[in-house]
Amino acid sequence: MTTFGLPEALFILRAAGWTLVLTSVAFILGGLIGGVFAIMRLSQVAALRRFAAGYILVVQSIPVLMVLFMSYYGLSAMGVELPPFLAAAASLSIYVSAYLAEIWRGSIQSVPFQQWEASASLALTRGQQYRYIILPQAIRISLPPTVGFLVQLVKNTSIVSVVGFVELSRAGQLVNNATFQPFQIFTLVALIYFAICFPLSRLSRHLEQVMNASRSH
Amino acid sequence: MSLQFESVLAETDIILDGIMLTIGLSASAILLGLIFAVLLVALRTLAGRWAGIAVDCYVELMRNTPFLVQLFMIFFGLPLVGIRMSGTQAALLAMTLNLAAYATEIIRAGVDSIHKSQLEAGLSLALSKRQVFQYVVLQPAFARVWPALSSQFVLMMLASSICSFISVQELSGAAAIIEQRTFRSFETYIIVTVIYLLLALSLKVFLLWLGQRLFAPVSGLARVDAKAEAA
After folding, report:
1. Which residues of A185-210 are buried (b: 16+ CB within 10 A; e: fewer)?
2. Cβ distance of A74 and B159 shorter than 8 Å
3. Are B164 and B22 in contact (CB under 8 A)?
C-alpha cells in the first residue's frame, strides 16, 4: 500500500504527454480523412455525396467506445492483433473524421455562393476554385468550431484507457488501484485535463468573437 | 474466418436488459439534467453576481474535463465521504450533472438572444417576474436552441456507453458480458453497434418530432383554419 506522493504525480503527468500525442495523431489523421469526406459531401457526383453523408451519419450515431472495441478486441478475434496505441489512434481518427467532415462542410458552404460563380467565370477548374478561392475563406470560418472540437477530442481520448493504453485517465486508475485515494488522484487528473481544455475553449470563443466582429463591417 | 452470429443472438435477454438500461439512463439523465439546467439558468439570470459566477465555474469545470473522470470521481470518491451508491446510481448522477452543464450553456445562449425590449413588453403587460421568465424568456429561448439541445441529448446517449467502465450493465456492459460468454467478439460488437445506431437515429427522429410539436409557430391564421376544419 503506497501513498499518493510526488512519484505518482509525476507518473500521471508523464501519461498526460501520451494524451497529447494521441490527440495530435488522431487530429492529423482524422483531419486528413475528414477533409476528403467534406469535399465528397459537396461533390457534383450524387453517389459520392450519398456515400459521404452515410459515413458521417453512421459514425456520429455510434459510441466511440464501440469503434475502439471493434478495432481492438474484434480484430484480434479475427486474427489481426493491433497494439493498443494503434487501435486507439485508428478509432479516434475515425471519430474525428466524421465530426470534422461535418464542421468543414458547413464552413465551405458558408462561403458565399457568388465566390463559386465569380471564380468559375474566370475559367478556373473546380480544383483551382477550391485551392485559391474557396478553401482560404472556408478555413478561416472553420477555425472556431475546429478548435472547439479539439476540446471534445482531448476529453474523448480518455476512453482508450479501456484497452490498457496508459494515457492520463489510465494512469489515474493505476495510481488509484495502488493508493486508494480517489479524490486527490482524480482531482489532479481532472485539473490536468482542464489545463489542456480550458485554454482551447477560450481560444475557440475568442476566434468566434473576432470572426463576428470582422463580419459585421 | 466466417462470422457466426447465432451464439450472440441467443443472448437476447442480456441485450434487451442492456437496451432498457441505456434508454432508461439516457431518458432520466435528459429529464433531470434539463430541470437542473433550467434552475441554473434561472439562478444565473435572476440571482446575484456571485450565484452567476458559481454557475459559470460549474459549467466550465464540467465542460473541460472528461465524462469518464467525472464518473470515477463520483463512483470511487463519494463512498469515502459516506455516500454509498450502486454503479447505476453513480452513472445516472454523472450523466445528469454532465448534461446539465452543457444544457445550461446552450439554454443560456438562447436566453441571451432574447431582446431586452421583450422583457419590458412583458413587464408592461403586468406579468410577474416569474411569468416573464417562463413565457417571454424560457419558451422562446428553448425553441431557438432545440436543435443544439437535441444534438447534446444524442451525444449523452452515446456517452452512456462509458458507464460500462464501472460495470454498469447497459448496452456496452451487456456486450462485454456476451463477449466473455460466447468468445465471439467481433459479432457481439457489430450487433451492439447496429443497436446503438438504431437507438441514435430513433432518438434524432423523436427529438425532431417533439421539437415540431412543442415549438411549431402556430400563427393565428392556422388556428382559425383548424377551428374551421373542426367545425
Report:
1. bbebbbebbbebbbebbebbeebeee
2. no
3. no
Do A62 and B175 count as a contact with CB atoms less than 8 A apart? Answer: no
CB proximity list for A132: less than 8 A, separation 6 or greater? A119, A124
DSSP state of A167: S
Per-residue pLDDT of chain A (217 residues; tens, 9 = 90+): 577 889 899 999 999 999 999 999 999 999 999 999 999 999 999 999 999 999 999 999 999 999 999 989 878 777 888 899 999 999 999 999 999 999 999 999 999 999 999 999 999 999 999 999 999 999 999 999 999 999 999 999 999 999 989 999 999 999 999 998 999 999 999 999 999 999 999 999 999 999 888 765 5
Nearest to B56 by CA among A205, A103, A159, A143: A205
Q: Name residue, grid cell 487528473.
A: A189
pLDDT digits (tens, 9 = 90+) for B177-216: 998 888 888 899 999 999 999 999 999 999 999 999 888 7
Give the C-alpha separation, A69 to B185, whole Å: 8
Position B184 scores a pLDDT of 86
Q: From CA A108, how far away is CA A43, in angstroms rounded?
A: 12
Distance from CA of A201 to the nearest CA of B (A): 8
Q: Find where cell 445562449 sits.
A: B109
Do residues B211 and B217 lie in contact, with contact meaning Cβ atoms separated by under 8 Å? Answer: no
Query: Which chain A residues are closer than 8 Å to B69 by Cβ?
Result: 158, 169, 172, 186, 189-190, 193
Contacts of A74 in chain B (CB under 8 A): 185-186, 189-190
Fill in the amino acid letter for B67.
F
Nearest by CB: A190 against B63, B65, B161: B65
Q: Which of A61, A70, A172 sits opposite B201 (nearest CB)?
A: A61
When computed from its CA atoms, the radius of gyration of chain A, rounded to whole angstroms, is 21
Max distance between CA atoms of chain A, in angstroms, equals: 74
- Say whether B65 and A155 touch across the interface (CB within 8 A): yes
Measured between alpha carbons, how far is A167 from A198 in angstroms, rounded to an integer? 19
pTM: 0.91
For B143-180, letters b (16+ CB in 10 Å) and e give ebbbeebbebbbbbbbbbbbbbbbebbbbbbbbbbbbe
Q: Is the C-alpha dihedral spanning A49, A54, A57, A60 positive or negative?
A: negative
